[in-house]
Amino acid sequence: MITHDWKVNQMYVVNDPTNDYVVEVHYELYGEDKKSDTEIYSANFFYNETFTIQDPLPPDFVPFDQLTKEEVVMWLWKSKNPQYPMDWANDQMLILETIIMDQQKPVVTPEPIPNPWD
Predict the structure, then answer these.
(1) Is the pTM of this model over 0.70?
(2) How far apart are the C-alpha atoms of 81 and 52, rounded to whole Å?
(3) Which residues, given as ranges, of the chain have pLDDT below 50?
(4) Within 13 Å, how many C-alpha atoms sit on residue 29's CB side?
(5) pLDDT at position 117
(6) Is 16 exposed, middle or buried (0-12, 13-18, 19+ CB in 10 A)?
(7) Residue 13 near residue 20 (C-beta atoms within 8 A)
(8) Residues 6+ apart with CB under 8 A from 45
């Protein structure tokens, strides 16, 4: 079974005298199929999301040092960037297809042979 998770790699802020506002998030959607402790297949997609600050102090504002991964991921889910529509179901399906293709590749063990000129 494929499990998906989000990894927030980097956040960019605008420094304000009273608060830091996140304006860009670099993150990835990660998928993993763990068959056993030694057989793990994975794939991921990388994204950058830029946010436009419309209200610098919305009622649900959370100071940067108090943000949680869950809150940032929720922003990503809610974001609406018309240039790069976020179709998570499609990306999860692509991760699944990538993992399945990796699992179906034949395992080839290279064998040393003497050089043809020896």
Answers:
(1) no
(2) 10
(3) none
(4) 19
(5) 92
(6) exposed
(7) yes
(8) 28, 29, 91, 94, 95
